[in-house]
Amino acid sequence: MFPDMFKSIFETGTSLSLQPADFLLCLAVSLAMGIFLAMVYTYKTRYTQSFVITLALIPAIVCVVILLVHGSIGAGVAVAGAFNLVRFRSVPGSAREICAIFLAMGAGLTAGMGYLTYAVLFSLILGSGSLFYTRFGLGIPRRPDRNKILHITIPENLDYTQVFDEPLEIYTSRHEMISVKTTNMGSLFKLTWQITLKELAEEKNFIDALRCRNGNLEIVISRQETAPCEL
Fold first, then answer.
1. How far apart are CA 212 and CA 197, in angstroms?
2. Of residues 90 and 205, which shows the higher confidence score?
3. Domains in the chain, please, with CATH?
4. Average per-residue pLDDT in the chain?
5. Contact 219, 207 (CB under 8 A)
């Protein structure tokens, strides 16, 4: 009895047609896995309700598709084309969102092939792994509060290529200019850097040193973060 749990439920049937009981069982397992994976995704991350609901339904959708195209090569190719159309009409998301979608699709694919026990184990193990890595901060940069975005406004006649090198070397451990933009009808330049401060307590002194070089125009230091993308 126990080894049968790891076999596909379609291997025990005598008919190749999809039975209502098997369909409902696969659908119920997929919905349960989708809810579990959606709850895992919301742990210590920024999210939107639409994405969480979508993530909860993806396993069931994939499961139904696999159930209906089971054994049909032509139908499988048509479904793959439809998924590609949906992909190119969506906004690229963060790495974690893409991983969550692939995880949900993998769970739905496994359930759709009838391997319900493997599907549940797959969701539990990878979902628990995601919770574990998030809980213990795998991959979080050291002292992320020191990572900042620096915006400096300068007059158009100021050569910005080296004028800020000295304070940047003194007060930051890393700095990289990422954009230069004209503003105010071209009379001003707005420069943007990604920086890592050496000491947070020296932030005011850093700003004062920059003010002496940009004519006391606007200086903005803000927290560095990745803007969330809703798929």
1. 19
2. 205
3. 3-135 (no CATH), 144-223 (3.30.70.60)
4. 83
5. yes
